[in-house]
């Protein structure tokens, strides 16, 4: 059991150890859907939702089922996440077909999104209880959304600036991400 | 489908379709564990093991896997081998295992491995799939060692923990921090783009001269 306070868990997951910028989790959507602020925001919200569901189910699995067979953890987590993503996909398709089209391939790819799987693993390794896990998931989700939206707004505003042909595309995005990550290092003193 | 020779299957993944540097797959481990060459090596070894084993298993069982559930089946195969790799590392290299921590488990969600199963192993025989997996694994290793090398060299002034620049070197601490990972990969990509551009220009010049 971990004795961190809820606030420090939340704040650490959101800014200090931001999943994308400090731990490199969830980079695929970070590169892929960060061209428009609108889409990035929605992707972030979908991520928060899946993260919370994952955290809850990982906690249940850990406490009630995997106690005696810890070596099955990786396999069972990935199955649970895959089915969760499938459910979310169906719900989104039903409720908002427009969003479903916008997110495109990145919605099913959430299964192999490191952030979601990473959350389940980190939560287990650090021994968070139910409430701590939930707060961790919300913080991590908000952090992901923050990083996505920041990245998307930067990319939108440099769209018409004169960038050398060479740097267009992923190289530029990575260097911007590096700069953002440096900025986020400044929060390290807060905890 | 494009016809390729076995040697092309092997070589393609190493440079021309390098998983990290060209296809931008498996970025998460490529950035997260490359703060030293040793970690990069341990990570590459584990990934190499997982991709080879799962490619062989998937390509030999492809007839029995129904098309509708193939992705889940591949994920299960990969997860099994990741569990094995996790246990092996814990037994034989406990220090590295501790250092890499959760990132060993995160090999499951490395898009590179799933991508190779879906794009190659599911359609080709065992021998070809193994060659393809070995090529991709080597490409991944090269990219990781490149990243790890740059970051360790600049961040601590050492390579594989052997001091290179001597005690007077002021380490660029930023390079071993997360921000350094992004910057290193960004600059490697820029350099590769520059080389590609030069190549294209040269080809263009040669074509002009010939005409």
Could you explain how this protein is built, in words?
The complex is a heterodimer of chains A (191) and B (211). Chain A is built from 8 helices and no strands. Chain A is an all-alpha fold and 191 residues long. Chain A has one domain (6-190). Helices cover 70% and strands 2% of the residues of chain B. Chain B has 9 helices and 2 strands, in the order ααααααααββα. Chain B has helices at residues 6-12, 27-32, 37-61, 70-92, 94-100, 102-105, 111-121, 126-156, 178-210, and strands at 158-159, 162-163. In chain B, β1 and β2 form a beta hairpin. Classes of the chains: A mainly alpha (191), B mainly alpha (211). The A-B interface holds A 21-28, 31, 71-75, 78-79, 82, 109, 111-114, 116-118, 121-122, 125, 165-167, 170-175, 177-179, 181-182, 185 and B 24, 27-28, 31-32, 71-72, 75-76, 79-80, 82-83, 86-87, 101-102, 105-106, 108-111, 114, 174, 177-183, 185-187, 189-190, 193-194, 197.
């Amino acid at each position: 059991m971990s004795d961190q306070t809820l606030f420090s868990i939340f704040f650490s997951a959101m800014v200090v150890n931001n999943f994308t910028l400090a731990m490199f989790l969830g980079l695929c959507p970070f590169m892929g859907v960060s061209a428009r602020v609108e889409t990035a925001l929605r992707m972030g919200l979908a991520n928060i939702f899946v993260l919370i569901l994952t955290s809850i189910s990982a906690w249940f699995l850990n406490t009630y089922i995997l106690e005696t067979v810890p070596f099955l953890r990786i396999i069972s987590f990935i199955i649970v996440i895959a089915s969760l993503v499938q459910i979310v996909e169906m719900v989104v398709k039903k409720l908002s077909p427009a969003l479903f089209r916008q997110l495109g391939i990145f919605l099913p790819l959430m299964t192999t999104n490191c952030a979601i799987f990473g959350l389940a693993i980190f939560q287990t390794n650090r021994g968070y209880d139910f409430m701590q896990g939930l707060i961790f998931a919300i913080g991590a989700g908000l952090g992901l959304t923050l990083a996505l939206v920041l990245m998307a707004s930067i990319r939108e505003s440099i769209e018409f600036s004169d960038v050398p042909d060479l740097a267009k595309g992923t190289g530029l995005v990575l260097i911007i991400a590096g700069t953002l990550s440096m900025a986020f290092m400044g929060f390290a003193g807060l905890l | 489908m494009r016809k390729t020779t076995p040697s092309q299957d092997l070589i393609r993944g190493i440079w021309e379709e390098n998983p990290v540097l060209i296809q931008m797959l498996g970025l998460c481990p490529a950035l997260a564990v490359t703060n030293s060459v040793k970690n990069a090596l341990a990570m590459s070894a584990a990934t190499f093991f997982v991709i080879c084993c799962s490619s062989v298993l998937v390509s030999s069982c492809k007839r029995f896997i129904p098309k509708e559930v193939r992705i889940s089946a591949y994920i299960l195969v990969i997860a099994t081998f990741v569990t094995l790799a996790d246990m092996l590392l814990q037994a034989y290299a406990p220090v590295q295992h501790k250092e890499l921590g959760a990132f060993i488990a995160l090999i499951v969600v490395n898009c590179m491995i799933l991508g190779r199963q879906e794009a190659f192993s599911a359609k080709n025989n065992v021998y070809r799939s193994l060659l393809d997996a070995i090529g991709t694994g080597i490409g991944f290793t090269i990219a990781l060692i490149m990243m790890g090398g740059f970051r360790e060299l600049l961040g601590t002034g050492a390579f594989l923990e052997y001091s290179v620049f001597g005690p007077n070197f002021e380490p660029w601490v930023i390079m071993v921090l997360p921000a350094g990972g992004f910057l290193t990969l960004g600059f490697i990509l820029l350099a590769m783009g520059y080389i590609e551009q030069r190549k294209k220009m040269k080809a263009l010049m040669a074509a002009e001269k010939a005409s």
